[in-house]
């Protein structure tokens, strides 16, 4: 990449993308500390050695106004000017700032490691009637269709002529045997 090839407009585009990340009410003109830290992490400005997350937080606090919790693009540029010499040691201020801009340009907030919505596998597994056991199994027929009330309650057999007579239609057989 040639020196001085990165324009502030390109950096501003990335700034706006990160500024609105995760905030539905954000306009893209101001960035909060969380998103500034995310930009630094996603664009590899924080490297764990020369620039740590603590450095990023300190610089953010330094450039923002006392009573607010966000920074403008101008303050963002100031913050980068402070971080650049730390990130690229041994380079002059202008060179290190250009390299820092190079890391930021064209980047968008990464959604790597963001929790995805769970697949419906658990629901399918829990509603598979073929895996039911015990009393739950009796509530469904062979096709997996529920039996309704018959599956939930013991319905007494009232087919005999005396209540609680179990064996309707067996009287004739008993009489013939005798």
TrEMBL record:
**Where do the record's region annotations for Disordered lie?**
131-166
Q: Where are the transmembrane segments?
A: none
User: One GO BP annotation here?
Assistant: microtubule bundle formation
Its chief place of residence is cytoplasm
Any idea which UniProt keywords this protein has?
Cytoplasm
InterPro entries noted in UniProt: EF-hand-dom_pair, TPP/p25
Query: Does this entry carry the keyword Cell cycle?
Result: no
Which PANTHER family does this entry report, sorted A to Z?
Answer: P25 ALPHA-RELATED (PTHR12932), TUBULIN POLYMERIZATION-PROMOTING PROTEIN FAMILY MEMBER 2 (PTHR12932:SF24)
**Protein known as:** Tubulin polymerization-promoting protein family member 2
Gene name of this polypeptide: TPPP2
């Amino acid at each position: 990449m040639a020196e001085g090839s990165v324009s502030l407009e390109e950096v501003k585009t990335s700034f706006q993308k990160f500024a609105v990340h995760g905030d539905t009410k954000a306009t893209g003109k101001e960035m909060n500390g969380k998103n500034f830290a995310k930009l630094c992490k996603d664009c590899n400005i924080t490297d764990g050695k020369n620039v740590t997350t603590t450095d990023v937080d300190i610089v953010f606090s330094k450039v923002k106004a006392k009573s607010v919790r966000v920074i403008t693009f101008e303050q963002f540029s100031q913050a980068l000017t402070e971080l650049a010499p730390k990130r690229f040691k041994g380079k002059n201020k202008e060179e290190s700032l250009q390299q820092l801009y190079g890391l930021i340009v064209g980047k968008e907030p990464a959604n790597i490691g963001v929790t995805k919505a769970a697949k419906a596998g658990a629901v399918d597994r829990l509603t598979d009637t073929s895996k039911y056991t015990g009393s739950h199994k009796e509530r469904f027929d062979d096709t997996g269709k529920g039996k309704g009330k018959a599956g939930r309650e013991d319905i007494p057999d009232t087919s005999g002529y005396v209540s609680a007579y179990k064996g309707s239609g067996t009287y004739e057989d008993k009489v013939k045997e005798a």
